[in-house]
Amino acid sequence: MLTAYIDESCTTDEKGGLFVMAGFIATPSQWQAFSEDWTNLLTLRSAHYRQLDEFKMAEMAKSDMHFEQCMFFYRAIERHLTMYVSCTVRMTDLREAHSQITWPDWLDNVELLRNEYFTGFSQIVWGLPKFQAQLGLNQPVELVFDEYSNRKKCEVAWRIMKQFGDPTLRPMFAPGLRFADSKATPPLQAADLLAYWVRESALKQPVDASRFQINFPWTKQSKGMKGLTVFCTRDMMLRNFRSSVLACSLLRCGARPEITSAVLRPDIHTKA
């Protein structure tokens, strides 16, 4: 079994803000070795670097000394981890796409679909099975999120995926969904680092999966990292919203679940 630990990072500005979900995927043995390495770095005593209770990239970036310390944590990621996933949502695009849909009066909870947590979670859950062959994902994946993230929205998206998702892809997530305390979970702290730099990179680049690069401030020493980068463009979200309305209409008319699952299968703009 594999485990994906995922955290989020967001910013608001005059352009409406950017939301990112990102994290790493690894085996239990990889995570154990990584966590031991990461914990040693947290508790490192030095005249130059501070001892940490928890790694938070946004806090570390506030001073040159702490920023320099981040490099050692990045190297721990390179030593142990080889696969990541990320999803980027420009929040103005999400709101605009949602506002362009004529939502049926009988359809409940449509406001949920304009929530960036719901959108990011849904795209990761749909995207990983779709690209599992390219990523080499040949085992079921357990999803772990920070318990202080928007838990309710993630749980609703999870229930929808299980109910309406492609039945052939559901076994990939058989281990289920859980939430953990990031302070006691080094893999979630690594996800925090990744989400921060995906966001910073996306702020400086167009939301274009084909050319996007995650720009870390440290020289890469490992060439083995691969991953799935999902971008929620306005047009893509608009198509997905229209598919959602059609699928719900068919379900309301008594269509078989396999038909609604095929209609609901989302468009995903990726670099894998």
Fold and architecture overview:
- 45% of the residues lie in helices and 17% in strands.
- It is an alpha/beta fold and 272 residues long.
- Strands 5-4-1-2-3-6-7 form a 7-stranded mixed sheet.
- Strand 4, helix 7 (151-164) and strand 5 (177-180) form a beta-alpha-beta unit.
- Helix 1 (28-42) runs antiparallel to helix 3 (64-80) and helix 4 crosses helix 9 (234-252).
- The longest helix has 19 residues, at 234-252.
- The radius of gyration is 19 Å and the shape is globular.
- The two termini are 21 Å apart.
- The model has no long low-confidence stretch (mean pLDDT 83).
Describe the secondary-structure layout:
Blueprint: E1 2-11, E2 18-26, H1 28-42, H2 57-60, H3 64-80, E3 83-90, H4 91-99, H5 116-130, H6 132-135, E4 141-146, H7 151-164, E5 177-180, H8 186-203, E6 226-232, H9 234-252, H10 257-264, E7 269-271
Parallel strand pairs: 1-4, 3-6, 4-5
Antiparallel strand pairs: 1-2, 2-3, 6-7
Helix pairs in contact: 1-3, 4-9, 5-7, 9-10
Summarize the structure.
With 272 residues, the chain is an alpha/beta fold. The chain has helices at 28-42, 57-60, 64-80, 91-99, 116-130, 132-135, 151-164, 186-203, 234-252, 257-264, and strands at residues 2-11, 18-26, 83-90, 141-146, 177-180, 226-232, 269-271.
